[in-house]
Amino acid sequence: MLAREIMTTDVITVSPDEEVEVVAKLLVDNKISGIPVVDQDNHVLGIVTEKDLLIKARELKVPFYITLFDSIIFLENPLRFSNNLKKYAAAKVKDLMTEKVEVVDENTAVTAIAEIMQNKKINRLPVIRNNKLVGIVTRNDVLKAIVKNNG
Q: What pTM, to 2 d.p., does this model score?
């Protein structure tokens, strides 16, 4: 079974210049947990998930550090703080989205999709054809396919 056989083809997308509040409303209204960000030619630029929006909603914590011999030693990842700070202050999707998006070709096997999701700890994979978004596969889609094949 392949991605094109289990994917949702009517994918809700947003542009990088969309307002963050619009994305939050789309997630809630459509009962989905992530939305691909695409350009005018339908190329995947990123993805916005509930996790990204939760960063905006929580209290921002400055990473712990100590000073030793006039050097600052961070006890937490300062890069993560920098990324979270950018998302915390975001008004536009381009400032909130995750840019490193795993995508799969429409001919990718469901077993390979499951492996990517498990190894990368992600819940959805945009599906592309000729580098353009044509669908999305969620963990639920993969589980349905497994049950269908084993049932």
A: 0.76
